[in-house]
């Protein structure tokens, strides 16, 4: 009996020591990244970052997931509220949240927001049914337009454009608030004449819209848009190349922002370090995960489209690489 008891105690002690000495078990860290609609590039960004980060989980003990979310504004609010650790956010939303202006005036400046890196360019893309006879942004007046769901980047950008043109929702025959995942079907079903999306290209939702109905990409240009770009440094002119979508062979002029990955100072330096390392140590693999990533350049990703400070964990990695 005594020998059996000693053996059991020894076995239990060895099991406990084994668990205690395994970093992946003892220091498991779960990270959640806010994205966007499942047909958009933001969702692919989150899934791609998590895929690369999870490849090294046995070494660093971090497990990542990236659920679909309401988009940029929703991601900022979730990070601020501690519901998410990181999020994909338009560069203009990043600026406004950090400064505490416009949609974020009531909440005040989000001074703890930090950037990891910038991503692809995101033009404001207006898609209209060809039979609606819309060729320019001004032609949306009096039409049925999906202006985007509250909390999304496209809604925020569309609100800015409407203000620049002197419009309110009453200037449309109908202003719907469908999510990015719903609007292509609404266009195809003739429930709206036009939809707006701030997204990298090519984009699944826009491919769906232009495939299911004869649709055109609409120019977003003119004096009012020029003034917006001049006043707000996070905006830039953009061209959507012809040939990406059925029936749209000509380049379309518009303006846009950049997608960025952000976190807050509440996320540990080590977690952010491992996240940026996972992306840049597998950069060629990352660029192959979506066509919108194909033209990304490391030096641009850590300098352009960032209106908040870099996270200390990101700075640590970039200094190791000699980029800062």
How many angstroms separate the termini?
66 Å
Radius of gyration: 23 Å
How large a portion of the residues is in β-strands, by DSSP E?
15-25%
The total count of helices amounts to 14
How many DSSP E strands? 10
Overall, the morphology is globular
| Class based on secondary structure composition and strand pairing | alpha/beta
Which H/E pattern describes the elements?
A: HHEHHEHEHEEHEHEHEHEEHHHH
> How many strands, which pairing sense, and closed or not: the largest β-sheet?
10 strands, mixed
* Mean pLDDT over the full residue set: 90
Q: Percent range for helical residues?
A: 25-40%
Q: Oligomeric form of this entry?
A: single chain
Stretches where pLDDT is under 50 for at least 5 consecutive residues are 1-26
Quickly list its features.
alpha/beta; 40% helix; ten-stranded mixed sheet; 10 strands; 324 residues
Description:
With 324 residues, the protein is α/β, with parallel strands linked by helices. Helix content is 40%, strand content 20%. Strands 1, 2, 3, 4, 5, 6, 7, 8, 9 and 10 form a ten-stranded mixed sheet that branches. Residues 1-26 have low confidence and may be disordered.
């Amino acid at each position: 009996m005594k020998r059996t008891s000693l053996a059991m105690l020894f076995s239990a002690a060895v099991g406990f020591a084994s668990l205690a000495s395994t970093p992946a078990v003892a220091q498991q860290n779960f990270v959640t990244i806010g994205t966007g609609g499942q047909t958009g590039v933001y969702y692919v960004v989150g899934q791609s970052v998590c895929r690369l980060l999870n490849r090294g989980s046995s070494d660093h003990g971090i497990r990542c997931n990236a659920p679909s979310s309401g988009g940029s504004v929703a991601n900022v609010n979730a990070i601020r509220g501690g519901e998410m650790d990181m999020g994909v956010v338009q560069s203009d939303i990043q600026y406004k949240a950090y400064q505490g202006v416009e949609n974020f005036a009531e909440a005040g400046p989000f001074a703890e927001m930090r950037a990891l890196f910038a991503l692809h360019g995101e033009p404001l893309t207006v898609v209209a049914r060809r039979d609606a006879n819309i060729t320019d942004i001004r032609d949306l007046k009096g039409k049925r337009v999906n202006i985007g769901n509250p909390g999304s980047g496209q809604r925020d950008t569309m609100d800015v454009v409407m203000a620049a043109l002197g419009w309110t929702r009453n200037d449309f025959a109908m202003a719907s608030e469908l999510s990015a995942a719903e609007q292509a079907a609404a266009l195809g079903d003739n429930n709206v004449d036009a939809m707006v999306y701030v997204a990298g290209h090519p984009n699944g939702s826009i491919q769906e819209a232009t495939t299911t109905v004869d649709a055109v990409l609409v120019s977003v240009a003119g004096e009012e848009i020029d003034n917006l770009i001049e006043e707000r440094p996070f905006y830039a002119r953009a061209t959507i190349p012809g040939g990406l979508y059925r029936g749209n062979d000509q380049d379309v002029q518009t303006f846009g922002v950049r997608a960025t990955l952000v976190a807050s100072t509440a996320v540990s330096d080590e977690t952010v370090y491992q996240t940026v390392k996972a992306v840049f140590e597998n950069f060629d693999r990352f660029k192959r995960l979506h066509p919108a990533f194909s033209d990304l350049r490391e030096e641009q990703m850590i300098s352009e489209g960032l209106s908040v400070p870099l996270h200390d964990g990101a700075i640590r990695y970039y200094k190791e690489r000699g980029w800062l």
